[in-house]
Design a protein that fits this description.
Elements lengths: L8 E2 L5 E5 L2 E6 L2 E6 L4 E6 L2 E6 L4 H22 L2 E8 L4 E5 L2 E5 L6 E3 L5 E6 L3 E6 L2 H14 L9 E4 L15
Antiparallel strand pairs: 1-6, 2-3, 3-4, 5-6, 7-12, 7-13, 8-9, 9-10, 11-12
Amino acid sequence: MSRIGKLPIPIPDKVNVTIKGQAITVKGPKGELFRELTPEVTVEQANNVISVTRRNESRVARQRHGLSRTLVANMVEGVSKGFEKKLQIQGVGYRAQVQGRNLILNVGYSNPVTIEPPEGVQVTVESNTNVTVSGINKEVVGNTAARIRAVRPPEPYKGKGIRYADEYIRRKVGKAGKK
């Protein structure tokens, strides 16, 4: 039995869950999310708890069981609390700013890089070097943060680039001088 899949999902107050076959809709104070689950699992709701079970013991059903439970739990958490990813920009002259909804990055290229966040994702910048990506859909927030980081990934010699706030960059020693 899947250890993650068999855990029940508690529904907080102010969150509505609607299940129609394999389609699940979650509404909360931050917004609304919809997802169509795979046919290998079934979803039931009983007195403020959602449970995900698999229909059979096939390999695919066992694989999808924990995944489906985590996706539904992320939907419930997203509409009630939301998700955010923090990024840091390091390097001399590297900075970011928000113009309208777009994020503009000056990270050592000849022209600034403009990133337009998808619908439902907000990007904020504090002190020109700290970028926060927030929204209700964990998958979209993570992908947007990864797209921003991919503009200038951190390099291992000086540590310049865009990194996650909790990311550790292993540093390398440069060339040794002539003797």
